[in-house]
Amino acid sequence: MDGLLDKISSYNIFNYLLPGSIFAVVADALTSFRVLQEDIVVGLFLYYFIGLVVSRIGSLVIEPSLKAVRFITFVDYGKFIEASRGDPAIEVLSETNNMYRTLCALFVVLPSVVLFDRFASALPWLMDGSPFIVGAILLVLFSYAYRKQTAYITKRVNKAVEDAKTGSTGNDAG
């Protein structure tokens, strides 16, 4: 268990475990869902997974929505990679940025779950179908997350190949 805990990065803690734990506490208090776990190991895995789901909602719903209304703008990914090579603080800032995005998603997901709980009790078919609804939502969510992650990897590989061809290390001033 100690070896596993050593491999958990601050990114995993602040973008998955913290939001998942907050979700569990608040959902347990405001809904009929019993999310808090007595078994710490089971709890950690569950809260991590919940945080992962919330984080993906942030990445796939919150981020594009805020970009669409021009609330946020991004630099070209290639520029981000180059700048990160020369300034390690960018990675830390990006991690913090992602945490804020995940917290935004959390504050969208929590009221949605509370509303679902309220309507589900009035609509028995909704509660009966909830395992299938949640399963379908998770399938779609992680399919799109997989596609987005694959696109990032592709961009990064292409940038590395381009840099190798030009002899650039990303640290060139010119």
Query: Structural class of the secondary elements?
Result: mainly alpha
Largest sheet: none
Task: Name the beta content range.
Answer: under 5%
- Assembly state: single chain
Number of extended strands: 0
Distance between the ends = 48 Å
Helical content (DSSP H or I, runs of 4+): over 70%
Average pLDDT, all residues: 89
H/E topology pattern: HHHHHH
How many helical stretches? Answer: 6
How would you describe the shape?
globular
Radius of gyration: 19 Å
Report the uncertain regions.
none
Could you provide a short overview of the structure?
The protein is mainly alpha-helical. The protein has six helices and no strands.
Q: Tags for this entry?
A:
174 residues, single chain, globular, 6 helices, 0% strand
Detailed description of the structure:
With 174 residues, the protein is mainly α. The protein contains 6 helices and no strands. The protein has helices at 2-6, 10-30, 40-68, 77-86, 89-122, 124-166. Helix 2 crosses helix 3, helix 3 packs across helix 5 and helix 3 packs across helix 6. The N and C termini lie far apart (48 Å).
